[in-house]
Amino acid sequence: MSAEGSGDDGWKDQLYKRLRDADITIFAHVPDAGHARLIDLCDADPEAISVPLTTEAEGIGICAGAHLGGKRAVLLQQSSGVGNCINQLSLIQHGQFPFLTYVSMRGEFGEGNPWQYAMGQAVQPTLEAMGVHVMTARSPADITAMTEAALTMAFQSERAVAILMSQRLLGAKKF
Amino acid sequence: MSEPKYVLKRAEAVPKLIGNADDFLIIAGLAGPAKDIGGMIGDAPNAFKFGGAMGGAVACALGLALAQPSKRVLCITGDGDLLMSMGSLAMIGALKPSNLSVVCVDNGLYQETGGQASHTSKGVDLAMIAAGSGFPVTRDVQGEEDIEEAAGVLRQSNSPAFVLLRVDSSEAPSSKRNLHAAETKVAFRQALLGVR
Asked: Which long-range contacts (CB under 8 A, 24 or more apart) does B120-127 make?
């Protein structure tokens, strides 16, 4: 299934545990192969709330509303969904809300579906144009280090942070 | 086919429907609904009022409701704002948080941009869409006599509730609102949580 990617999914379980240890209890998500393990773990966790979105844009409101209510949320989405979020990120930037999103990437390393490149290549510049700090993880070690950094940036410094999960990490879908 | 003419005036009907705003944590959508709430309670910190990010109020209210399950959350939105976020009704219908009520003040107009007709003035029924999205309780308020019962529905605690408030084209009350969301966010959290 994977063109490259890490065959060991243990890092996904460790990532979920780290997010839960950081008091993130609300996981907003759209269906996605790259995030499937995290979504499954959340669905099975009685102390966490799994929020299936109809569009990624709703995840912005969910995260902001959760912060107003004193809880921590995270948005799990695919690169194509980032485009749906752009105007809603006004709320995050103008309101100085903490914001953390993990973006499973398409349209980059090893992509076989040419439709994916337009938005995939626009993810970083559009997020940065809306004031979101962007980091790209290409290995499990990157995920670990970037998650530590992002938790501090988002929930201590009240910044908006996106961690892009490259197909180099996740594996490129075969076409 | 002539469209029905609605008679309620939002400046009177919204305060009557919501009643004591202290019963709720409130998320108000941009433009008319934010002015409705501003006219009722000014910048009181139990309300967070949007001034942009159109289409985001309903999702924000759901996030708040999930974070504060013991408090009743009220989202007040307009027809234009809700037409842009109809999927959020499906999200609520799927999760069915018991502490979230949504009021849509429907004047059939994009009043903020010059009064262009909205889809609801051409037959789109947002109360039916809410029911079809899985809201167990919906009301379609068109006259004075419907308001009191709907006010009770907003406060029932068994399920999410949706109230469509059909109003005429009269303006929302003008009020000076704090449009700096970083400040109103902190005020909201200070009042609710005691932290910034």
From this structure: B120/B79, B120/B83, B121/B3, B122/B3, B123/B3, B124/B83, B125/B164, B126/B79, B126/B82, B126/B83, B126/B86, B126/B164, B127/B162, B127/B164
B62, A65: Cβ pair inside 8 Å? yes
Ordered by start, the domain boundaries in chain B are 10-193
Q: How many helices (H) and strands (E) does chain A have?
A: 8, 6
The predicted-structure confidence for A44-70, as pLDDT tens digits, reads as follows 999 999 999 999 999 999 999 999 999
| Range in A46-50, A56-60, A162-166, B112-116 with the lowest mean pLDDT | B112-116
B8-60: pLDDT as tens digits: 999 999 999 999 999 999 999 999 999 999 999 999 999 999 999 999 999 99
Instruction: Select the residue from B46, B66, B186, B190 to test the A interface by mutation, using most A Cβ atoms within 10 A.
Output: B66
- Which CATH fold topology does A10-169 show? Rossmann fold (3.40.50)
Task: Tell me what pLDDT residue A174 has.
Answer: 78
Write down the domain spans for chain A: 10-169
Among chain B residues, the shortest Cα distance to A95 is held by: B182
Contact B63 A65 (CB under 8 A): yes
In this complex, the residue of A65, A90, A96 whose CB is nearest that of residue B59 is A65
Q: Flag whether pLDDT at A1 surpasses 50.
A: no
The CATH number that domain B10-193 falls under is 3.40.50.970
Whether B95 has its CB under 8 Å from any CB of chain A: the answer is: yes
Return the pLDDT at B176: 85
pLDDT at A160 over 90: yes
A69 CB within 8 Å of a chain B CB: yes
CB A68 within 8 A of CB B63: yes
